[in-house]
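Look over this entry.
=====
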Amino acid sequence: MSEPIRPSEGLRNVRYEIRGRLARRAHEMERMGHEIISLNIGNPGLFGFRTPETMRLAMIENLRESEAYCHQKGIFPAREAVVMQQQARGVQGVSADDVFIGNGVSELIDLVLRALLNDGDEVLVPSPDYPLWSAAVTLNGGKAVYYPCLPRDGFVPDPDAVEAQITRRTRAIVIINPNNPTGAVYPRAVLERLARIAEKHGLVVFADEIYDQILYDRAEFVPMATLVHDTLCATMSGLSKVYRACGYRVGWAAFSGRVRAAADYLAALELLSSLRLCSNVPAQWAVQTALGGYQSIHELTAPGGRLYESRAAIIDAAAVSPYLRLQAPRGALYAFVGIDTDVIPIDDQAFALDLLEQKHVLVAPGTSFNVSYRNHFRVTNLPDAATLRTVFQRMHELLAAYAAGAQELPPRVVDATARFK
């Protein structure tokens, strides 16, 4: 008998649980006829959100111009639109040559790290993080070093703690703001300190700002590129979230700061971009219309808007629960909810599995986002408020059953003394 075909050892420490074991089980249950409320992915189109019509029309009108490969960095109108947005925000010295269009930010995360890292190089990544950053660092031979963003601090990092983790192998820092999975929006003073730390140590700043306009209750978004001057800054964003166009697969990385000193690095990035020929051309024609047109996202995030009201439903449900704890999200499309382990010593993976099997609700366990504590889970606020109230009622029923002893606690539990401190 032939030997089994084994996967690469390089995948040993690569995880993406958002679409992992629990998501596969949810699909199995759906095939069996169960109706699953899936809150594990921020995918607006699955919840009835539409891409603005003007963007669809821009694609259709330019289909004849979309049949050939375009420049490896992307079509000029799309890159120029990104430049104009950066300039309007106060970012100086950016040109279309400094912008790379990719098949979503996901592809660009891989490319910018592949062009930068040697084996063993370190990248500072927030904990909790969006796990693609950790995976891409690992896949490109690097080591993800996590700086804590603790619940007690509103999931905002402590710049002094970040700087204490820098070594001679540290090459870059990832800043996700507004944050996925927590919804935290970082204060200007914190971002300024992180910028100075990056400049002091010569770190490349990767500013993941895909949720830049999804803000609530007058939260202030400060573009990192307006603060970083004496090192290289890559601003990464796209059409997926603000413009509800996940399937278009259009993202960009705009470089600012010490661009001339990074000429060799950017040449390497262009080489990698050339190897994949170009990114999806038809959807690039929607970028100029998206960035230069009416910003309908503000209607959704204002009081009375669907995203605002759904977020409010989550906040209200957590506030009245004797079992749940929540730092109210101020941006993005998620809430990172904690279970009070003084009341119920529960493990996030086991709770998520019980919630799926018994209550037909799919969430992403907190450990999926590279945290050491095991009592959080992430939900998206994309469903309507009524659906989310139903979800939290089902959670309450399960947690109340645990507390009353009517439902046996899952076999994997966490000692309440091991909570984050």
In short: Residues 9-49+299-402 form a domain with the Aspartate Aminotransferase, domain 1 fold (CATH 3.90.1150.10).
